[in-house]
C-alpha cells in the first residue's frame, strides 16, 4: 500500500513503463518523484470548429524503494470537429 507521500501515476503508459522497469504488477507501482513534459501543435482548418492535433509527452517516475525509475514517451495524434 502506498504511503501518503508516494505518487501513484495516473497515466497507464507511465505506470506500465515503471512496472516493467522493476518487474512488478502495475497495482504495486508508486514513486517518490514524478516529472512530465508535454508539447503539442494544433492545425486549425475552420477556426476552432475543425482541427488536427499532435503532441508528445515524456514522463519519468523515480522509485527509491527498488532503486530504479520508469520512463514513458507518448505520441498523440487526433482530429476534432465541433459543429
Automatic annotation (TrEMBL):
Source organism, top-level taxon: Bacteria
Protein name stated in the entry: Uncharacterized protein
Species of provenance: Rubritalea halochordaticola
Source taxonomy: Bacteria, Pseudomonadati, Verrucomicrobiota, Verrucomicrobiia, Verrucomicrobiales
